[in-house]
């Protein structure tokens, strides 16, 4: 028993040392690849999307050896804090609450948020106007925080995936859904299931409500200032070269 | 394109199977150790094994997994820091998955093995000892064949539940069948198609396991019926 325990401890120590050595020269970046067009997998399992292309460009510009891989959303921020990953890119909205536990790069995008509903329906987005209506949102997102704070009169249904609210809309179990406009257009409106639906209400950004945050950025561990500097340097180069504008046009243009 | 996604999902099959089989191995080792501990004369061993099965069987699998993956390395690192060691513990999703599933199903295996051991007639052991069989031969010739026969139904159940429980490991980011199915479902907004593919995969694993284990059960039943009342 004793020998088993000792060899187990040695094996664990080796595994630990090996991963620490690897982390020193390779930047591991996690993304939740379930949010097209920002990050998703293509049919061969490869990561694709706006954030993936941007991150690759930033790494190239900053001469970082990056390994971007798909991880589960639920544990991503705790994982970053615990040091499992060096950085996260996943349309992460910068908020005061998040700034307390993780560090953010410069903001690279100011997303537009919109509601989506069945064509021909109209809604009163003034205070108290959504009484009796059901809004579907992805849980733990800025959109969730926004409707929770501003539409207490509505019924809010929360789902842990980005696609479930669309099923609820199509099935008539929800009247409205709110998300990133580009995500609604790409994941839903362009497809067959979304042909009877349309964007409704005003275009919303961080200027309209504090729940939408300051913008979207890459997250890094609080202590990892060197990596943060590298990423910001890469981001500035990508912006200056016009690559960021090209990405915006490719993925976010209507 | 749908077919390409299906191929990608099924290509993760070996990962899921590897995870399940490795976990099974850990569970068998832990199960045997704890079963013998529970039947031993030492109150310390009995207590330790009792505590292990009680605690593990009382906590949801998901909670154990999140604790092992997120909290245990952090705890070990703090411990190492406090002791002044400059090492960092980090579990990959595979290691955390195998450890968790092994730990959980080890507890269930313990009960299966324990009751099988208890159901081997004492008289046979005494007879074997009277004949002067060595402990090794006693175990290999008398105990093990009967243990396999008695434990197989419970073992089969545990294995089938374990094979399905591997889907939980996708929640800590292991690229298994379930993780790939979710990725495909979200990318294409066709959840039913791809979750059905995943369901088909797990069903196929179950069918293959059943065929294999039923065959094994028949072999170990050979010649036993005649002696039963």
TrEMBL record, chain A:
Subcellular locations according to the entry: Cell envelope
Domain Solute-binding protein family 3/N-terminal: 26-253
Primary location class: other
Residues of the signal peptide: 1-20
Pfam family, one: SBP_bac_3
Alphabetical UniProt keywords: Signal
InterPro entries: SBP_3_CS (IPR018313), Solute-binding_3/MltF_N (IPR001638)
Family under the similarity heading: Belongs to the bacterial solute-binding protein 3 family.
Name of this chain's protein: Arginine/ornithine transport system substrate-binding protein
From TrEMBL, chain B:
Localization annotation: Cell inner membrane; Cell membrane
Transmembrane parts of this sequence: 17-37, 49-71, 91-109, 161-181, 193-217
Protein name: His/Glu/Gln/Arg/opine family amino acid ABC transporter permease subunit
Keyword Membrane: yes
Keyword match Transmembrane helix: yes
Family: Belongs to the binding-protein-dependent transport system permease family. HisMQ subfamily.
CDD domains: TM_PBP2 (cd06261)
Keywords: Cell inner membrane, Cell membrane, Membrane, Transmembrane, Transmembrane helix, Transport
ABC transmembrane type-1 domain sequence ranges: 13-214
Classification via InterPro entries: AA_ABC_transptr_permease_3TM, ABC_transp_permease_HisMQ, MetI-like, MetI-like_sf
Pfam families to which the protein is assigned, alphabetical: BPD_transp_1 (PF00528)
Topology relative to the membrane: Multi-pass membrane protein
